[in-house]
Every structure is written in structure tokens, then in C-alpha cells.
Amino acid sequence: MKGWTINVLDLGGHPIYNCRTEKFKERLCLLVQDAYGMFSEVQLQTLCSAENIEQHSRRWEGKSCILAGMRILQRTTRGRALGLFSLIDSLWPPLVPLKVPGQSQDCEPIKTDLPLPSFCYILTAQSDPKHINVDEEGQVTNFYQPPTVRGLKEILQVDDCNQRCSFWAQVIYRRLQVKCSASVGQKEFCLFVTDLTLQDGRKGDSRTPKTVPIYFAMSCVLTKEVMEALTTASHCVIFFKDALRGNGRIICVERTVLSLQKPLLFTAAEADFRELTGPVKLDELDSTTVANSICTIRGTVSGVNESTAFSWPTCNRCNGKLEPSPHPSGSYYCSLCSQTVILPVLKMQLEVFLYCPSQPHCTVKVKLLQKTISSLLMSSSTEDGSYEVKNVLGKEVGLLNCYVQSVTNLPSCVGLEEITLLEAGRN
What we know:
The protein is mainly β. The protein is about 10% helix and about 40% strand. It folds into three domains: about 5-100 and about 115-135, no CATH class; about 150-270, CATH 2.40.50.140; about 295-420, CATH 2.40.50.140. It contains seven helices and 23 strands.
């Protein structure tokens, strides 16, 4: 294939799994379009880090380039690559008139009723990046369409499946999923986020949640900077570019880019994200609550799940589990600290059933955090320091922040787990 002048519309990464090392590597991919409207994805063979992918994105995206020495890997269609075509659809129709082979381009009007592309070529450079000549100093091409940044409320109101969306959001809670990879940084997890458009919703507007779960597939490439921000105890504000909206969920997949920095090119007023200044509001538990969401709850203890209630001593230095000391002193031994522990910290697990005014005909079971358990039992202990179930019944609990583990209708039952939201702090 000879030299081919083309426009870089998007950059992203694909994870490649190495069976020998059991680790993931990233490969830079370019979504390009020529003057005739044909899309191609260029997959560079050189492996790179997620940081390098972001650097190339800021340098190359929106610029014209010349491709040479390309090899066609395959011609893929919409049915075979829904994720790729969801990104292509977000860039259609083009902003400038397309060239037609054999016809003049003079004064041709822009056509907005063009049919969606039905195929895309997957290309690879035989010796990259020598055969990709990007005009980094040139102006942004007229073909380039910056991501349209919208508020989460507007995104949730769109019912179309397999749509790409870009938005700013504040992360308030993170949760690992059941299926995880042993590879560091490639665990499947979920972030709960919010923004002003959700927090400022009108009272009684039950159709719009105050928080949204963002799911991460293992194909999503994350930079070290983003991963470090997600593992801190404080909340952070992240820019989500080209996340996939479909089947009622927002998913970060391949070609989704996360950044802590403001993108160079964007549209819409919502791109200037304003961080929340007050406490985050969660939806209260009610009949519309679904599994894998977060909510607030308050109620009265109507029962205790005694079969799952237990306590265990932990080290007062490293918080590790203890074992009986080999010495006859009656103390404990910590294998992590390799020391004897005289004053252990007692940890407890407790699940209670609550009567909730918001769900009077529903069985609500909550797994409590240590702080709430201590507060509940402190006012329920007997003279000898022991605890009896009858002293716990009737105690008021709340307002608690909870993760919804399960919801069943017949019988009506909700399983909750008390959680701690990320603290306000520096990004």
C-alpha cells in the first residue's frame, strides 16, 4: 500500500494477554478516516504503557497523518465489532463534505443523511512507528470531532444501546467484582460516581438516581496515575472519554480513555466540571432500589442473624489476626509482627434485620461495619459485659450508607452491606 493521507480521530489501547508471564501489555490503536469517509483502525505492533498511550493521544489526536507500509489484517463489520462501531457511530456524520471518486469537490454541501458505515479495515504497520508520519505541528483537521461532554443525567436519559459517551464525574465509592484476574491493575471493578446534574435533581424525581455505577471490563486500559487516584482514601474527579452506554449500564471497555486532566479538545459547557462542595446525597432505600446500587437507610432493629455473628481478636499494631500465644500468660501472638500481643483489638461481624418506614413490608438485612456494631452494642451490654439479643432489639440505626447486594420480590427482601464513602480531599 502506498502513502495514504488520513486523519487521526481517536486513540486508545488494547490489552494483550501474555500466557507465559500471565500479565497484560498494551498496544496503541489509532482510529483514522480518509477524505472519502472510510474508517480504519491501525493497530501498532509495538507494546507500550498506558501512560504512553495517553501521551500519543494528546499529541496525535485530531491531526492529519500519512500511512505507508500498511498491511490489512481483516475487514470487519458492524456485527463482528460492536464496540468499534459504537465509536465510529459517535463520529458520524462527518463535519465536512466527503470526496466522491471521479467527482469534483467544489462547493459540495455537507450531507447529514449519509448511511452509517457498515465496515472498517483493521490495519497494522509492518514497522511502526516509522510508517506513520503525523503532522504534530499542524492544525486540527476539519474531520476531527472532539468528544461531546454531557452531564450524567442527560446521558442516562438516552435509551439508545451501544452509544459512546464522555463525561466528568466524581468517584465516591469503588468495589471489586467477583471475577478478578491475578494480574495487578487488571481486576474487574465498579466505581460509583455522581455529578451536579444528579445531585441537583428535583425532590421526588425517582427516575433519576443520585449516583451511577460505572463498570470496568478487563479490556479497559488504565494509566498508573488513574490507578493511584482510585486506590486512595479520598474521592477524585475523573474525565471519562468514550465510555460505552448500553443495556442500562455505563461500561469502560477498550478504546475508553480515563484521565485526571482536562482534555485538550472538547465541546459543550459541561466540560468545565465543577466539583461538589457539600456532602454527597444517596437515594433512600425504596421500592425502586435495584441490586448493585448504593443507597441510604435508617430503621429499627427487629432481629439479629445469630448464625453469622462472631468476633475475633486482632493485633493492635498491624490489625492482623491473632493466634493463642505459646506462653502460659493467656496472651496472643501476631505472626505478622512476630510479637506477643497483650491488649488485642476485638473485631466483630454482625448482621441485623431492620424495620424500615420506607419499606414497611420488606425484609431488610444489613451487614454492619465495625463502628456501627460498636455503637449498637455499647448501649446493649449487660453488667458483666456480655451482649444479649433482646437488648439489641428495638434500637434505632441510621442513617447508613449501604451497598445493595440483592433484591428479591417474592418474598420481598433486600440484602445490604454498610459501606464507607470516599472522603473529600485532594484530587
